[in-house]
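Thanks for the sequence, V.! I ran ETC complex I subunit right away. Repeating your input here for the record:
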Amino acid sequence: MPSARIYQRPKNSTQSGRARTDMWVLEFESTEPKQADPLTGWAGSGDTRDQVRLTFPTVEAAQAYAEKQGLTYHVVPAPERKLKLQAYADNFR
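Predicted structure:
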C-alpha cells in the first residue's frame, strides 16, 4: 500500500515573504532507492510517484484525500514560528 507524508510548506529562507506557506502538501514516499545514472551522474529511480506533490488548503482536506485514495499517511506538524524581537539599539550593547 503506498504511503505519503503531509506537511506544511516552510518559509523560503532566501526570501522575506511568507507566500504559499499556508498550503499543505501531500508527497508520496519513495518505494525504491535512487540510483546514479552512469552517464550523467544524476540520481533517479523508476518510481514516478516520487515526482508528484499535491497541495491542499487545509490538513483535513489532505487527510480526506489520502483516506479516500486508500493511502497510509503521516502528518508532519508545522514547526513553531519563533520571533526574534530586537531593537536597533541592541546592536550596541
